[in-house]
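Bit of a strange request maybe. I'm writing a small parser for structure token strings and I need a real example to test against, not something I typed by hand. Could someone generate the tokens for this chain?
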Amino acid sequence: MLTLQPATRPRSRSRAKIGLALAGGGPLGAFYELGALHALAESVEGLDVTSLDVYVGVSSGAIVAAGLVNGFDPLDMGVLFIDNAADEYPMTPGLFLQPAFDEYARRMLGAPGLLLEIAKQYLSAPWRGNWAQSLEPLGRLLPTGLFDNRPYERFLAHMFESAGRSNDFRRLPHRLYVVATDLDGGTAARFGGPGLDDVPVSRAIQASTALPGLYPPVEIRGHTYVDGALMRTMHASLALEEGADFVICVNPLVAYDAYAHGGRTRVEAGGFPLVMSQTFRALIQSRMLVGMAAYRHSHPHADMILFEPDRSDEQMFFVNMFKYSDRRRLVEHSYQRTRADLRRRDARLRPLLARHGLRLRHDVLADEDRTYQAAVKERRRHYQPVTGRLHATLDRLAARLAVT
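Reply from user aminoacidic:
Good idea to test on real output. This should exercise your parser:
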């Protein structure tokens, strides 16, 4: 689903300033964003998704945004995250699903003292018989996260520190914001902004993706951070505050509309996981809609477009958002649906894109044989140890000859 929000008072500039805001959504969200962004990148002439003016990433969207600003386009990240085919950056699901043994041990070490505290509290007034109140401190024994988020932070650090890239916000070629939530203050933390731009990008992403219950909170300079989506969905306002005239937004999570299929599938029938998924999605989407409506009034000069799955899209709902094995199907589905959205909204998109020196490539959109997976297979040539550099050189030469 593609939503257009044209500027009510567009600015006249010789060069538009373009921003990208990516929401979270676990691995499912990242796969959706890769498919949508590749469809957009190849279908819009003049748009280089690795050379925009400002990037904003929340949770898993922060991984994609940081990859883009470091020169990894959606196909490069497909080679890494979808095909696991880059020898230099070995990617496995275990990076995200390693048990947080240190967190478990830390909690258990506190058990003797905590049990003694409970016994003293109960024995001080045993006649009250309030076991529930006495046992309340046991909650402190529960780990704050099931999985360790340090392995993939190290993976991202390696990914961003090699081949001339940067893990330093201040040295990136374009502005990047990674948003997390300050757990103790209940406020949004803008990594990449003043006072937080010296934190490594990989560390900021670790904080932004620390979904409570799944990963432990991340401590940085005495502050504790968790998932950035707790405050807002996309934080597109950061791109607008940087002066962006055109902001592309991608939100992978929308509430499912079972009535679109005649109510034959009820969310409640899926049990607790689907009920919680629908609840989380509804909260995410409602906050995003409120934010988009506010941007229309606070930033009337900016054009905005929003890519989301259709609310009736069963393929995007009836799958665990943390399921890694469905990655090829999901990214392909997102790619093809985004292409269909661009074709369908061509008439309204044309004047909006033209304001920023962009236009749709109808030849690309009309090519029904295009697939994301075929494009990734072609890109994998560049990651072959022996021939990769030769292919890259030949591609650059072909591009120069085409220009001249």
